[in-house]
Amino acid sequence: MTQRVCCCGKCFFGASSLDPDATACAHNQTEVLKLRIPRPAYAHQRTLKVFSGCDCDGSYISSTTCPTSPTIEVGYDHFHPTTRTYTWFYEPANEVWPPCSGAPCCGYENATYSDTECCGDGNKCYLSYRTHEGLPCSRYQGAAINPGDPIPHLGSNADAEDCSVGDQYWFLRDVANHPTTAQFHHWEVVGGVVTQMADTTLERTMLCVVHKEKWWDRVSNSLTLPIKDGGTQTDITAANCRTPKYWIFACSGIPLYTWEIRELSSLTTAEQDDLIIKVTNGDAIPEAYCDTLEADGILFAKDYGRADGKVIKKTLKFKIGHVSYTSISYFFARPGGWTYVCQDWTDVDPGGLANFPQIPRRYSDSCLFGGDNNCWTASPLPGNDCVCGYTGDAIPGGCVGDPCTGFPNCAPPAVTTCGADGCARDTIIGNCKGCWVQFSQYFLSIPGSSTDYKCNIHNNGYICRIDPSGTCDFGQLPTEMSHWIPSVVSASYRGGFSALSDMCCDGDGTYNVGGTDCPALTPNAAACDDPPIWGPGT
């Protein structure tokens, strides 16, 4: 059997069956997830410090250098509060449409279409598609929904590149532009009671998009190695925040409509009302309800062998005038993918797992790895035995302190290499089998006095779904990686100051518009090497 066919009905991943990286997945409860992040020697916080008007006048470049540390190895086992393999997660319908505007990078501002005007007062919109509220979409939204439509760059920058949002909104095609002559029954919660509303168009009856999910729970973490066994206090302190508590793989998302629940499902009337109320309130849907809807063929995706690759089959019940119709239509799916939950998400969700799986993702109340309120980065942090060093002028006689610890009687301005801690980027590229993750960071050769940027480090990590005793087969992981090269670095290359060979591998250029990095045609860095084989026994 081919990969396209063998797992259909289990966990389809992607918008279309034609995408070779968006195929179906067969999960079980025994497979494990392995995360690996090497920690090579690493320098960061490279900063220019200029002191004047005090006993310590001078210019210094300080940086923190960390030697090689043991590779971060984390193991995850299957997780579910009970004994199930999968759970069900939903996104409310009003949160799954593309944003109204792609500005400042891309969109439409011309005599026919104006995203600005459309988003502001409903003029110059793209009438072929409608929002969840039934209003005309902007041209940007229409292009995001329609497969193959380009999204032109805004402005006249010669190096600007058109935008692409991929396939994440394809599932709205044939929904947001469904004929308005077809009117569907619709139910909403009014005063706490599920109430039938006036018949309306298809997109307005969407309640949510439902994804089947497979969860893994962190069960081993090399950062918790006791000091007596070679661990360090630095690693132990960082252990909970450095890696996610849970990893999640989401199957393709399937829209769920109120008329499907009322007219096509085998749920009882009480269950139907309860489902609609729970989604309206943001509460988890009982898994048994979704199991029933899957058995009814409502929450179901498979490869139907269609030339367009659509993987969702819907039975539509509607009226045109006073005549009732039933028809079969096919749709793209909302792509699934990987996400994670941090250790202390409960600070914003006091119920803990009581509302599983509708709990905050990619949020931490206290962790700072990968940025504020995050618990993920592919960087080599935390380093062990890190030391601050400096170069530059000789420290004047009579001066107390040094550029690392500070001069008590001086308050110098500090100029970093590129932002608060260098120009850093984290990228995760995933498929059914796992993820290739990459951290890239740039720095100025001479902070504050040059535009010569270089790649400080690019660090590859990996997440691999394997048999408990198996080894990760990297041939099944994504084979293409890319990150956005910061706009200041890209501009330096285009200005002739930074060499292409000094760019981190797999980098794509950007340019700055109003403080936002937008895609540019140059530079295009060389591809990264394929990852090495790793796993148990290697």
Summarize the structure.
The protein contains 8 helices and 24 strands. It has helices at 3-6, 115-121, 139-145, 233-242, 258-263, 269-281, 287-295, 487-494; strands at 32-39, 42-51, 58-66, 69-79, 87-92, 126-130, 136-137, 184-190, 193-200, 206-221, 246-257, 312-320, 323-331, 337-341, 368-369, 374-375, 387-392, 414-416, 423-431, 434-444, 453-466, 483-484, 507-513, 516-524.
Question: How does this structure look, described?
Answer:
The longest helix is centred in the middle third of the chain and has 13 residues, at 269-281. The radius of gyration is 26 Å and the shape is globular. Among the domains are: 67-91 and 177-363, no CATH class; 427-538, no CATH class. By secondary structure, the protein is mainly β. The strands form 7 sheets. Strands 1, 4, 5, 10, 11, 14, 19, 20 and 21 form a 9-stranded antiparallel β-sheet that branches. It has 8 helices and 24 strands. The two termini are 31 Å apart.
